[in-house]
Amino acid sequence: MLGRTIFIDPGRCIGCQACVSACRECDSHRGKSMIHLDYPDEGRSVASLPSVCMHCEDPVAPCAEVCPADAILITADGVVQQADPTRCIGCANCVNACPFGIPKIDLEAKLQMKCNLCYDRTAYGLAPMCATVCPSGALFYGTLEELQAERPGVDVSTMFAFGDVTVSTGVAMVVPAERPGSVPGGLPIVEVNGQPTPGNGVPA
Fold it and tell me: Could you give the CA distance from residue 37 to residue 34 in angstroms, rounded to a whole number?
């Protein structure tokens, strides 16, 4: 069962960038935002999607697994920390390994930077900055039980498929309870109007 974590509810995101601005205020990376606000169909749709570190746990976060300097530590409660500046060599292995495109390299500092779930706050029971300021609840911090009490009828997914590889995460994506098993941006869409899609029994 999920503990206290971030739940991303893409249907609620209004693209206001409050999360981006709040993230810049974190002491560990003041002035730089570690959250990405993506516009998947820019120019044709107002749809937006906040992307934070998914804190993978399958069984080890890919970014930590490929770090040759052991600079990316994982806390006992599963939070994947940003690179330790005393160990990071700026090789960008983590950038290439992350299936969600989250870590970035500060070229000037030769240092990896990414969301660490505002660990200076969450370790003491406070919500991350992004979830604190989100006016629409697209970023919800709490337990699954708290989320479902506030939003009856929703379900969540922590499994994301990338081709033949499935990644389990500590951060969850809110999905409709009646979903057919797909998550936008993660799991493949297996059916459209009851018909299999290319790659799921139908040639491309």
Answer: 10
CA dist 45 and 58 (Å) reads 34
Provide the greatest CA pair distance for the chain. Answer: 53
Q: In 3D, which of 87, 89, 93, 53 has the Cα closest to residue 71?
A: 87
User: Which residue is listed with tokens 């599963």?
Assistant: 78
Count other C-beta atoms under 10 Å from residue 32's C-beta. Answer: 12
CA dist., res. 39 & res. 185, Å (int)? 12
Residue entry with tokens 């730089």 = 32
Q: Are 52 and 8 in contact (CB under 8 A)?
A: yes
Q: What are phi and psi of 195, to 5 degrees?
A: -110, 135
Q: Which amino acid is at 123?
A: A
Q: 13: how many CB neighbours lie within 10 A of its CB?
A: 21
What contacts 98, CB < 8 A, 6 or more positions away? Answer: 62, 63
Residue 128 is classified by DSSP as P
Amino acid at 117: L
Q: What is the pTM of this model?
A: 0.82
pLDDT at 179: 55
For 38, other C-beta atoms within 10 Å of its C-beta total 15
Mean pLDDT for each consecutive 10-residue tract of the chain (204 residues)? Answer: 84 94 86 89 89 89 95 93 94 94 90 91 92 96 94 88 86 76 45 46 45
